[in-house]
Amino acid sequence: MTRDLLDRAFGSDEPPLGLDFEAIAAQGARSVRRRARLALAGTAAVVAGAALGAVAVLQHPQVSPASSGQITYAKPNDREIAYCYHTADITSTAPSQHVAAGINGNSPNGRGDIAVRIKDYCATAWRDDYYEWHSPTVPPLVACVLTSQAIEVQAGAVGVFPGDERTCAAMGLPVADLSR
Amino acid sequence: MADRASFTDVARDRAPRWRRVSFLLCGDWALAEDIVQVTLLRLYKRWHRLDPAGIDAYARRVMARLAIDAARRPHRRAEVLTAPPERPRPDVVPEDSADVRAALDTLGPRQRAVLVLRFYCDLSVADTAKTLRVTEGTVKSQSARALATLRTLLTEGASS
Questions:
Q1: Which CATH code fits B1-77?
Q2: pTM of the model
Q3: Cα–Cα 20 to 30 A to B109, which of A145, B21, B51, B69?
Q4: CB of A138 within 8 Å of any CB in chain B?
């Protein structure tokens, strides 16, 4: 009886499944590869010690008032994919350093304008620890337009980083103008 | 150990059923799909360590946890789980399902999860307790309360 009752809850408005399984597998595979690379990097880090630490600091530019990058603005060319970044670093290959969003646009082909909502998505990813970034709070986030300098991403798409507009400038990226 | 090459086939095969379970857990088709997507990503990362026979159990555990978390943080839901614009959300809920959905919505998230796992997924009391990491006594009491609530609401609804 209870099973019949629960079956009734589905009604007749069940939408078609909009999941892109290949994209999910690809994203998962990339995450796994990065994790493996991190394990290697971790071993190297133990050997390299302080030297690698210094490199890491250089590769994770911190926004500071002294940042000399000029703040510019641009619209993204590609709105159907966007990325949440763990740190303000577009060249890091650390696991889950950046994670693509937009594989479930709920459109028939699984795509849609993700750029307009990517900041909200990344904020929730931080808050709910989707990517095991282990942050007690959601940091201030800024959307930048990625260029070809950013590795393993679609140039022209939006990347959301912890920081503010100066963070984009410090990485040589324009701040994303997300209006349509 | 599950063969990673089989992931997509298994995902495609199980996702519709998992989304239905998620829907019963959360009451929202868009949220249910998001929950399944996150579940699949987590599943992929653990794929090589999972016994193929334990895939459903793992997925149910993740989905239940995500649904309970989402229900406890409605302000978070509003940020990430808005339906993308390409597919309009149906405005009209079929009448025959509306009363059941409304009744389910009155249950607490854990009570609802107990009900779904016990009576839709056909899990035993022990397996439900293991999935939700609660005691068997909690499963029994939550399940009894949830059934009583549904019975009352749906009987009242039918007689009015």
A1: 1.10.1740
A2: 0.56
A3: B51
A4: no
